[in-house]
UniProtKB/TrEMBL annotation:
Biological source species: Streptomyces chiangmaiensis
Composition-biased stretches (Basic and acidic residues): 27-39
InterPro entries membership: DUF3105
Signal peptide from the UniProt entry: none
Transmembrane segments: 45-66
Keyword entries, A-Z: Membrane, Transmembrane, Transmembrane helix
UniProt biased composition (Low complexity): 1-15
Protein name: DUF3105 domain-containing protein
Positions of the UniProt region annotated as Disordered: 1-39, 204-223
Length: 223
């Protein structure tokens, strides 16, 4: 009988040990699950915060870009200080000389062939009627008289050469050392460094004033 009692005691201890091990495993598994759930919550929070920050940045950046674009459009719409404008200009092709009311001309009837204006710098005066046709295509015409310095002429020539839809030539009879002309618009300046030169180029090279936007500036008269 003593032997039988001893076996039952050992068996009970084994069962308790197995139960303890199983409980410990369950506890470890549950702890791992809690840790994983906490990690997932942290990751979700980080993702939400990061996404919100990115979205806020995109929205803020988008509004900034829109505001900048609006500012540029408003700047282009405003007249440039000192510029003169004309409207109701004729656009007929003629083969005779035109008596333009302004010097240099800003538009009106003109020759059937335009003056090449793909950044062309001419050293001799041009025929008004050909240059006016270039203005109709959206070109800016830079002219100068003998009051312009050699340095200014050189600087303006370099700017024209790298700017499609522009041309440059001497114009001895104009009143200002340097004149910038687009269709219906004209600005007189004394120096190439005048900030309005860039403003005029930005606004009127293929600008909204162009009667024939996209028309060619090559294939016309080249001298």
């Amino acid at each position: 009988m003593a032997s039988t009692g001893s076996k039952n005691t050992n068996s009970g201890k084994g069962k308790n040990s197995n139960k303890d091990m199983a409980a410990a495993r369950r506890a470890r598994i549950e702890e791992q699950r809690r840790t994983e759930r906490a990690r997932e919550r942290r990751n979700r929070i980080i993702t939400i915060v990061a996404s919100t920050a990115i979205l806020a940045g995109l929205v803020g950046g988008g509004w900034y870009l829109i505001d900048r674009a609006n500012e540029k459009e408003q700047a282009k719409a405003a007249p440039i200080s000192g510029e003169k404008t004309w409207s109701s200009l004729g656009r007929n092709h003629v083969t005779t000389k035109v008596n333009y009311p302004m010097t240099p001309p800003v538009g009106g009837n003109h020759a059937p062939v335009w003056q090449d204006c793909n950044g062309n710098v001419y050293t001799q005066p041009l025929q008004n009627e050909n240059a006016v046709h270039s203005l109709e295509h959206g070109a800016v015409w830079v002219t100068y008289n003998n009051k312009a310095t050699d340095a200014d002429v050189k600087a303006l020539g370099a700017k024209v050469q790298k700017t499609p839809y522009t041309l440059m030539s001497p114009y001895p009879s104009e009143s200002s050392p340097i004149t910038l002309t687009a269709w219906g618009h004209q600005l007189n300046v004394n120096k190439a460094s005048d900030s309005r030169v860039k403003e005029f180029f930005d606004k009127y090279v293929q600008g909204k004033q162009t009667p024939e936007p996209g028309a060619a500036c090559t294939g016309g008269k080249s001298s």
